Amino acid sequence: QVQLQESGPGLVKASETLSLTCTVSGGSMSSYDWNWLRQPAGKGLEWIGRIYTSGSTYYNSALKSRVTMSVDTSENQFSLKLSSVTAADTAVYYCARGYFDSSGYFYPLDSWGQGTLVTVSS
Amino acid sequence: ESVLTQSPGTLSLSPGERATLSCRASQSVTRSYLAWYQQKPGQAPRLLIYGASSRATGIPDRFSGSGSGTAFTLTISRLEPEDFAVYYCQRYGSSSLTFGGGTKVEIK
Q: Measured between beta carbons, which residues in chain B are less than 8 angstroms from residue A112?
């Protein structure tokens, strides 16, 4: 059973860069896509972006100018950087796994990390 | 970009009752790439339904999904105490993902 675990600073200063890492255990990273999402307190879910093990990325157009994702399959990790953060970026950040099969059919996010709260301070 | 609108915002029901949740897309959903998730307080979302109508592994058969195109429904046939939670629909696929705003199913 695959497990995902987010890690990184819980407090980031405004205008700085938020950096998080998701460690994947119990399974291979190949044939999956790896996603970051967030959820402000009391609000809904927002997808930030996705990265494939090839390094290809897709980002939420609303955040694209500030987001960078990377993957390190040798360490079974993928990472998120969000620059120029403001209080609006305060949220629980989740990493999650999607899947696509050999025919190109996609499946949604079936495994999630527990989430990590990141607070942006002024 | 396709917007997903969920209704109602809150559903107040008693255990044993049937819950019907709606998700409408502003554009047709390709290949029925529509999923439903359940989220309880302090927990990550849990995948319930994918492909509009297929149950994810381990999901009880009281949960069912239906619909195509722009109109989708999640039905919980008989609510159990553990089913009171927030439910999100999600459009997925090869590019971006979008979520609906959620429906809270609360105990009446």
A: 44-46
